[in-house]
Every structure is written in structure tokens, then in C-alpha cells.
Specification:
Blueprint (H helix, E strand, L loop, with lengths): L53 E3 L1 H13 L8 E2 L5 E2 L4 H15 E3 L4 E4 L2 E4 H15 L5 H11 L26 E2 L11 E5 L2 E5 L5 H14 L4 H9 L3 E5 L27 E4 L15 H17 L3 H17 L17 H18 L12 H7 L1 H10 L7 H7 L1
Parallel strand pairs: 1-4, 9-10, 10-11
Antiparallel strand pairs: 2-3, 5-6, 7-8, 8-9
Helix pairs in contact: 2-4, 3-4, 7-9, 8-9, 10-11
Length: 408
């Protein structure tokens, strides 16, 4: 696979010094075997993180920092099946940022230019970028995404997937109303020629996607976020984007080689969410069944909104609700599209439960659209506790998805 990786700006440009004190004119001292101190960046005044911190050798600092980074997938809300497969739920990036900030308030590295730790050659500026991201998050000038990207940059995995957010530029957000406009695509993403925004989310597609598909996606996002407008601001702040495609995700520049037919969600360090435009309902494309925009955006709520807000209300409730529905037989009688060699087990069903019930609740279309949870009345009757959870986050006003999009 040949993949053109584009970086619009350096990672350091993803965070600014707003909310942090200005840089001092001190440079880090030269460590033996590192680059010249004259080439090193300035040391910023670190907005209080190192006021009482103990200075330790840089190698020791990054060994301890990596322990925090490696623990990012741990959560008391995770579910582990009898086969050892894990469905993960929790505010992972929120906790990662909090734990990293606490660690860095107690420990700071001795000044260095470049330090070799394990497989990584870490530059002083990478440390400064992380520190600045934490400053801005703490002071309300930034969010969790730059923190996660800064840590991913320090402990870079060369085998990471092609759609990593740090490897692709972002689109500018433009309010469009319900109108598809030409995309002002950044370098490397010229594939995308169509653009619309709705509910704080950017929706883009190439020439092969019908404009009606973008309008259908726009309407779904607008409706899904109508009860909680604060979600729209969070989506916009995290540059949430839906990339529509035809056939598989491999047709998109960021996701060559992924070959996913339906779509996948977007997390803190992903370039975009994806959805198959051929699976959407819109006039001229009446395809009763699941809706990947609705389904994957429900996952994005988990990965972006609920993590940003550290919403333990949601994370504590969703696994018990999923297991109860599986035990009662009201949920789980379907096959998922899983990687080759992976056998579906309870963890996979638990992991998809929220997105499945949101999909049925929003479409409210009946059994020709879903195998279960196909309408609000069905959910309220057969799975009333998850219905109560749904109405905490989603609109209760009627939306004519079927007639307006599938039959119109």
C-alpha cells in the first residue's frame, strides 16, 4: 500500500501558548550525546506544573510517563468476556490527561536536547508541546485532543493505522446550513469535493457520492444533537468530521488499506469518522436497514463527548444494560463484521449495544430497519431502562426519518 502522509503543521502548532505563561530565554542544558544546546528550543515557564516538581534524569522521567500512557485503556467500566475479549468503556483520554498532569506536577525531567529512551529519540520540544497542551486544557484554552496527540507523538508507534489525526490536516469549519458547497480541501485531501456542516460536525465526500447523501447525513446529525446543543460545541472543538464513501473505506485517502464496508467511528486521535453513503436512506436510494451515520455518531458521542465530560453516568450504566438485554434475549441475535479470524463473543455485542439502540431509536422505523430495538415503542416496552438512558441524551420530538429520507 502506498500512502501519502500529510502533516499540515507540526504537532507543536496544534497547541498554543494561550493560557500559559510566556517563554523564558533559557535554553535546556546540553546533555552528553545529545544535539547541540544552541539548537534547542526555549524552556517555557510551565504554568505551575513544575513549581514543586522533583527533577529527575530525562530517561527516568519518560519511563514513568510511559507507564501513565500505557495505562490509558484501563477502566473500571470495561467488560471482559469469558474468552478474554474486552469491550472498553470509560473517559480514557480525560483520565490520561488528569493523570499526566498530576504526574508532571510532581516530576519533571532534567533539561535535555534529545534523549534516547527505549525505541524513541525524544526532543525537548515534544516535552514542551505536551506541557503546553496540559496547560491549555487546565486553563480552558484547549481540550483533550492535543494532550493525546502530544503523548502519541512522544511514544510514536510506527505501525499505527493510517488515519491517525496527527498525520492529516483538518478542514476549516464553515456554517453551511442545509446546503452542500464545494469543499475547501487541505493538501492531501483533494479527494473531498463536497462539504456541509450540521450539528457541529463537518461532512465531506468525493464526486462519487450523491449530494443527497450529504443532506441525509446532515439531517441525522442535526436531529441527533438537537436536544443537547452543548454536544455540537464539543464536536466542533474536536474537529469531528464524517467522510462518506462508496464501496469501502479504502477509497478514502486517509484510510487506504482498511477495507471496511460500513464505516467506523472517530476517537480523539482519529482523522475522521466514516460511513458508507450507499447504505443511507435518501430520495432515489431507498435502502431500509441500518444507518451508518447514526450508528457511528453514537460511538463518537462515547469517544468524544462522554470522554470530554467524564460522563460516569453513562459509562457505569451501559454495560449492565447490555448484559441484561443479552440475557433476556432482546438483543444480540446478529452477526458483526469482524476482522478475519476473530470470533464474535459477548464483548463484541456489549461494545455495539449503545450504537445499535441509538440507531433504532433515531430511525424509529420498524423491523425492516433493525433486527431489534427497531422503534421507540419497542425499546420502551422491551428494554425500558435503556430507553430512560437514551432520552437523557437524545431528542424526544418526533422525526420523520422514514418518509422524509427513505420514502420521499
Amino acid at each position: 500500500m502506498s500512502l501519502k502522509i500529510i502533516a499540515l503543521t507540526s504537532l507543536a502548532a496544534l497547541v498554543t501558548l494561550s493560557g500559559c505563561a510566556a517563554e523564558s530565554e533559557l535554553s535546556p542544558s546540553k546533555n552528553e550525546g545529545t544535539s547541540s544546546a544552541s539548537d534547542a528550543p526555549f524552556i517555557p515557564v510551565n504554568c505551575g506544573f513544575d513549581a514543586q516538581a522533583q527533577e529527575v534524569p530525562a530517561e527516568e522521567f519518560f519511563a514513568l510517563l510511559q507507564e501513565e500512557y500505557q495505562s490509558r485503556r484501563e477502566s473500571p467500566f470495561n467488560y471482559t468476556s469469558s474468552a478474554g475479549e474486552v469491550a472498553r468503556f470509560g473517559a480514557f483520554n480525560y483520565w490520561l490527561a488528569e493523570n499526566t498532569a498530576e504526574f508532571m506536577s510532581l516530576t519533571t525531567p532534567e533539561p535535555f536536547d534529545t534523549v534516547r529512551y527505549d525505541q524513541w529519540d525524544i526532543q525537548w520540544q515534544q516535552f514542551v508541546t505536551l506541557q503546553t497542551a496540559l496547560c491549555n486544557h487546565r486553563d480552558g484554552e484547549g481540550n483533550l485532543k492535543p494532550v493525546r496527540l502530544a503523548l502519541d507523538d512522544i511514544f510514536r508507534d510506527e505501525s499505527r493505522w493510517p488515519g491517525h489525526a496527527a498525520d492529516w490536516p483538518t478542514f476549516a469549519y464553515v456554517e453551511t446550513g442545509r446546503e452542500v458547497i464545494p469543499a475547501n480541501s487541505p493538501e492531501g485531501l483533494e479527494h473531498y469535493t463536497q462539504y456541509i456542516t450540521g450539528g457541529g460536525v463537518m461532512i465531506v465526500a468525493g464526486d462519487d457520492v450523491a449530494p443527497e447523501a450529504l443532506l441525509s447525513a446532515h439531517d441525522a446529525v442535526e436531529y441527533m444533537t438537537s436536544a443537547r446543543p452543548e454536544f455540537r460545541a464539543i464536536f466542533r472543538d474536536y474537529h469531528v468530521r464524517i467522510s462518506l464513501f462508496i464501496e469501502t473505506t479504502s477509497t478514502l485517502p486517509e484510510f487506504q488499506g482498511t477495507d471496511e464496508p460500513g464505516g467506523f467511528a472517530m476517537g480523539m486521535n482519529d482523522a475522521a469518522m466514516t460511513a458508507n453513503a450507499e447504505w443511507l436512506c435518501y430520495p432515489g436510494n431507498n435502502v431500509p436497514g441500518g444507518n451508518p451515520v447514526i450508528h457511528e455518531l453514537a460511538h463518537v458521542m462515547e469517544h468524544i463527548v462522554f470522554e470530554h465530560e467524564n460522563d460516569t453516568n453513562f459509562f457505569a450504566r451501559i454495560v449492565p444494560l447490555a448484559l441484561a438485554a443479552i440475557d433476556e434475549g432482546s438483543y444480540g441475535n446478529y452477526e458483526q463484521n469482524l476482522p478475519e479470524g476473530t470470533e464474535q463473543d459477548t464483548s463484541h455485542l456489549v461494545g455495539e449495544y449503545w450504537a445499535q439502540v441509538v440507531e433504532g431509536y433515531i430511525m424509529d422505523g420498524g423491523p425492516r430497519f433493525k433486527y431489534s430495538h427497531w422503534s421507540r415503542d419497542w425499546i420502551k416496552t422491551n428494554d425500558p431502562e435503556v430507553f430512560d438512558l437514551l432520552v437523557e441524551y437524545l431528542p424526544t420530538e418526533e422525526w420523520d426519518y422514514v418518509d422524509a429520507h427513505c420514502e420521499g
